[in-house]
Amino acid sequence: MTNRKEVAKLAGVSEATVSRVLNGIGPMKDSTRQRVLQAAKQLNYELNAVASSFARGRSGNLGVVLPHVPKVHLFSTYYFSELLGGIGEAVHSGGYGLLLLFRDPTAVYDYVSLYRTQRVDACIILGSSAVEAERTAVHRLADERLPYCVMDQRFDHPLLNIVAADHEQGSYDAVRHLIDKGYGRIGFLNGAPQYSNSRDRLAGYRRALLEAGVAEDEMLVYEGNYSRTSGRRAAGQVYRDLGRLDAVFVSNDRMAIGLMQGLRELGCSLPDDLKIVAYDDSDAASFTEPPLTTVRVPFYEMGRLAADCLLKQLADRDKTDAPAPLIREKLRTELVIRKSSGN
Amino acid sequence: MTNRKEVAKLAGVSEATVSRVLNGIGPMKDSTRQRVLQAAKQLNYELNAVASSFARGRSGNLGVVLPHVPKVHLFSTYYFSELLGGIGEAVHSGGYGLLLLFRDPTAVYDYVSLYRTQRVDACIILGSSAVEAERTAVHRLADERLPYCVMDQRFDHPLLNIVAADHEQGSYDAVRHLIDKGYGRIGFLNGAPQYSNSRDRLAGYRRALLEAGVAEDEMLVYEGNYSRTSGRRAAGQVYRDLGRLDAVFVSNDRMAIGLMQGLRELGCSLPDDLKIVAYDDSDAASFTEPPLTTVRVPFYEMGRLAADCLLKQLADRDKTDAPAPLIREKLRTELVIRKSSGN
């Protein structure tokens, strides 16, 4: 392999000068720089990627920042694995690497330093929520107008970049479906309200009830945490309320699966005793018994779209000094009807 | 923020010298280097991560190289998501980043250049198989004794680093369970033989039959590709052979789920018409109808172990010049008995 010495000799400069040229450091006469680049090219001198990214001010990596939750197999949830799959597809097409980084959800994560230290050229924030530390961290990032995108979580910042799904409409469609089938007494098992997409689901649920003239019964709104275990835990409460319920809308498939398992263990027959509409249309939705009526969310497409938008911003930055347009995408969901809602 | 100019001024050197010191480029008088480092420290001059890794010869990233298969949502398969989860956990604990990179399975991937260009300090190879291009690439990597580990795929190289599960024994246990229950006519739906873990499963299947004095019937060995669709596709053949089958051992849960869906559509009642033992013990195994008897594979632990071994090699490299010991780990599987095998 060619070394720096040979390049220096051919170019007639010192080795230090070769390094300075190839690393883009300091002032340099243009004729000298050209001579060095010419020699390096002629000798096929392989630029070390780090040196080369240092020169270009690039890492070649798109960062994906996830919450670190001990013992939770995050990648094994449909939500994260599909988002990550879509991001991976875009990153692969764009010739980038995907750098996964974990943040502590209780601390203010220093996104800005990821850019300043050139670990990433852009980043996507997954699994974010409206807790104070995360809000502070994302607001700082938005203030700097760095290339970033928050996935599926609203923050109240004028420069927020976000790709989300229309969960208000998705939830409305789910509840509306039950009402149209004649089931008026509809409970709701939601995830935690720190996620804007939980609050959006609640808004959609309420809109559908209001529109149908059904009074909301707060006692029939249950809270889980999007895990199967939390769905199973809710089964006791739902079972207790069975006399007041025709159906339950559940905020994701995993909780719905846990709820069905729990109810079956308590002796329920599904969907006869209770109609269920879930959310996500994960793989599992089609092979539970009964198969789940559920709201399909295009997570893979959302991940791909966010990554594509960011890679485009990076490419455009080389062409223009104009600030990048904001990313504001809201994708449509789709109700998929199966047997759990009594069909 | 402090800039290079101020550091140069305080140290009494040129800006170029500051860069050369901080980037570890070229020869430098030790007293000069000390003066620059002292000034940088005094002024809290933040070393750019790229410059800093360049100086240390490190990226701070563990690479994970995956096959790129268009349209396949790789992260949404239990196998990859669990392995990745375990790797992520180790990488997070070790303060590393996880750099995901995709390879074209038909080309010879240049692993070595990942190290030479300092994109990664070590790497884990997932989803590898014995096709010629992959064999060549892995052999080159092994020849160089770089810190790497192949996940769950054997290659015939004396310096192979591998973390795997004992699929021969796992498969033996699965088939033995069926034999012990009195089901002697056992078919086998396997994945493609380019994976050593498919060949290991076949070996375990054969050992159990041989030991029980059951003659293998080649007509009852079916091939899928570990996807649900391929399991569904196999349902037609299995259905045709029902008169000669008591049970089928299936190489992963996804294929088993597809097979059960297909058989049910053809009018079968499960597990009455056919006993099934699957493999993986993915999330879905417990909520299919009937729930799957399956072989639990500790994928998460395998991922964590491989990453931990590599991070330890990297840490040890700073302490000793001795070559790192080979990584040769084979983890045990465990049969989980549920209703699909007729219990």
Automatic annotation (TrEMBL), chains A, B:
GO terms for molecular function: DNA binding. Keywords: DNA-binding, Transcription, Transcription regulation. PROSITE patterns: HTH_LACI_2. Residues 2-56 form the HTH lacI-type domain. The keyword Transmembrane does not apply. The keyword S-adenosyl-L-methionine does not apply. Coiled coil: none annotated. InterPro entries: HTH_LacI, LacI/GalR-like_sensor, Lambda_DNA-bd_dom_sf, Peripla_BP_I. This is LacI family DNA-binding transcriptional regulator.
